[in-house]
Write a structure and sequence with these properties.
This protein is mainly α. The chain contains 19 helices and 2 strands. The chain starts with a strand and ends with a helix. Bound molecules: 4-fluoro-L-phenylalanine. The site of 4-fluoro-L-phenylalanine has 15 residues, from helix 1, helix 2, helix 10 and helix 14.
Length: 464
């Protein structure tokens, strides 16, 4: 059994990853998801392309990476889920609510995330069977999947069942086993698709938009959009990295692991842009189209004409949706794992039962999101807020809750639990802490200030 020693526990009885690489792949699997392959090009396209890319890289390095390390430290120190981690380090205090917010956020993000992931399953089938030939009415096809209640809920259920099945296997035989296969496959698919995209006629204009910065486009809003995107993309702010960190062996080095996961996630987002922008410019489209329309309606409308015809589009399209589904699966698994770790650690519910209960709960919560893309009118455009229900949930939980969570995590580690205790955990077993002082400065000052600014901007954009 794991035992408490001043918040630090022995590892006996706690599942651990089989190796450092296994952990890096699993954590990268959590980070790399819809947020990279579709979110990143969407936000970059709407915020100036190359200039956004540079600001994003800064946000990842100075704000994302330090919070990533802070979460991993909290997890490995306490060997617990987010709620348990705060309970162990700050017993009988309100800090446990930060963990509680993380678990709640996990269930809600899982709910709408698997709705979109369900569409990708439907689209793998559609592309493989040649639905997107020349002249296909892609908007009508999308309405047929996302706007049809039976299809939307059915595909969503299928995706949730796959997610539960992976989590069922546990840390090593489920998550680790699957991410070890899926992540390399995803990397290969991405590179192949990027090669196809950058060699399309007219791709050069897309590359210019993506890599030639126009600094007049950098505004406060662009900076904040970049940092918000970085949190979602790196799976920060809700304790996913606390949970995955709790399975890291005390022998493994946390700083280099955090650096690898961050670099992996960022490289994949950049590669995704290399697929999306040349393809959009090839079609003579605006880089700012973004969102569900961009992926399911615009990209698919190109499949009919991607050389070599008629199979180019089928191969490109099937590869693309397979990629999206794999990326989404390793992320949805981590979302469910956070909540399952909470129930198994804190309430001693067996893993299988916890996975079914929480996956089932997320499935039910998702029903309105599944019906919010045309199936039910008022859910597709909510009164007052004007957003569809899925986008509304994303705004509250995928943006606000993560940003608030990251703020409290950096305050807790930087000022309450303390930099020196965190440093001790990094150095356990002779671990090195390069840039320790820089990290301390970033987590104490830079991260909280930047996050407060983002929150201000988010609230301003909501009421403004
Ligand atoms: N990082 C995932 C993505 O980019 O799609 C989404 C995500 C997964 C966010 C897990 C938060 C999380 F805890």
């Amino acid at each position: 059994m794991a035992t408490d020693v001043g918040g630090s526990r022995t590892q006996a009885g706690r599942a651990t990853w089989g190796s450092k690489i296994a952990f890096i792949l699993a954590a990268a699997g959590s980070a790399v998801g819809l947020g990279n392959i579709w979110g990143f090009p969407t936000v970059a396209g709407q915020n100036g392309g190359a200039a956004f890319l540079l600001v994003y890289l800064g946000g990842v390095a100075f704000i994302g990476a330090p919070v990533m390390l802070a979460e991993l430290i909290l997890g490995r120190r306490t060997l617990r889920n987010p709620v348990g981690a705060f309970k162990a380090l700050a017993p009988r205090s309100a800090w446990v609510m930060v963990g509680g917010l993380g678990v709640l956020t996990g269930v809600v993000i899982l709910s709408f995330y698997t709705v979109i992931a369900g569409w990708t399953l439907a689209y793998i089938l559609k592309t493989i069977t040649g639905t997107f030939g020349a002249g296909a009415d892609t908007a009508a096809i999308f309405a047929d999947v996302a706007g049809n209640p039976v299809a939307a809920i059915g595909w969503h259920l299928a995706f949730m069942i796959i997610t539960i099945a992976v989590v069922f296997g546990g840390v090593r035989d489920g998550i680790e086993r699957w991410t070890k296969v899926l992540m390399p496959l995803l990397a290969v698919l991405l590179v192949l698709l990027a090669i196809r995209a950058v060699t399309l006629p007219g791709a050069g204009a897309g590359l210019e938009f993506y890599f030639k910065p126009d600094f007049s486009k950098v505004t406060g809003g662009v900076v904040l959009a970049a940092i918000g995107q970085a949190f979602f993309s790196l799976s920060l702010g809700m304790g996913a990295m606390i949970t995955y960190g709790s399975y890291v062996s005390k022998k493994d080095d946390l700083v280099s692991s955090a650096a690898w996961v961050t670099a992996f996630d960022t490289s994949i987002a950049i590669l995704a842009g290399l697929i999306i922008f040349p393809t959009l410019f090839y079609a003579g489209l605006e880089p700012g189209v973004g969102g569900a329309g961009m992926v399911f309606v615009v990209l698919t409308s190109l499949f009919g004409s991607i050389p070599p015809e008629p199979y180019g589009g089928v191969i490109f399209g099937t590869g693309f949706f397979l990629l999206l589904a794999i990326a989404a699966l390793t992320s949805s698994v981590s979302l469910l794992e956070v909540t399952v770790a909470w129930l198994t650690d804190e309430r001693k519910v067996p893993r299988h039962r916890a996975a079914i209960m929480l996956g089932g709960l997320a499935f039910l919560i998702a029903v309105p999101s599944a019906l919010a893309n045309g199936a039910v009118g008022w859910l597709s455009s909510l009164p007052v807020v004007g957003l569809d229900f899925l986008t509304f949930l994303f705004t509250i939980f995928g943006q606000y809750a993560l940003v608030i969570g990251a703020l409290f995590i950096s305050l807790f580690v930087g000022w309450v639990w303390g930099i020196s205790a965190a440093g001790e955990e990094v150095r356990v077993n002779d671990g090195k802490f390069p840039l320790g002082r820089t990290w301390a400065f970033l987590i104490r000052f830079v991260c909280p200030v930047a996050i407060v600014l983002i929150l201000g901007q988010l609230i301003y954009s909501l009421i403004g």
